[in-house]
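Encode chain A's predicted structure.
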Amino acid sequence: MPKPSAPSVRQVHNIDGCSLITKEEIAAVQNTNVTDAKSSEGSDGNHLITQCYYATTGPNLSVSVAVTQFDPSNVAGPSPREFWEQTFGRFRKEETETEKKEHEEKDAPNTRGGGREEGEEGTPPKKMDGVGEEAFWAGNRVGGALYVLKGDVFIRISVGGPDNQEKKIEKSKTLAQKALGRLP
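Encoded structure for chain A:
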């Protein structure tokens, strides 16, 4: 007779953002030399966020990669997947009109003002296909970032430079595929 399965346990990994993409891969995508990769780490109380900043010789061609994962000091908090769902779930195309209206009404006070990750003047994140379990581009006329979910981890990739948004999305997707292949 088979043993009853053990209760589900959250897997906690301390994933260094700099371990997901090499300097050479950044250099190839940005067509410049990478001079340094600096790692940093912090917690928002629920999640551990590790970041890697890739400095380049080309002007404004730096790249930033952030990994949001379980915080080992608070594994009882909401998972990164739950946070993802709260943040991006309402922007799926298959959401019903009723749900969309409820979210818009609920979030109405937060739709003004700068500094929102969704972009400028309430521009909603755009669903991206072909990368990770689910992905969204949050951008505006000056920049943006690609957010990609895999399991209970999500990554954020921001590519600098003079490229238009379409090219930055393409470069971000290329780098995301490399990073996703190295996630545990």
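Residues 17-93+117-180 form a domain with the Protein Transport Mog1p; Chain A fold (CATH 3.40.1000.70).
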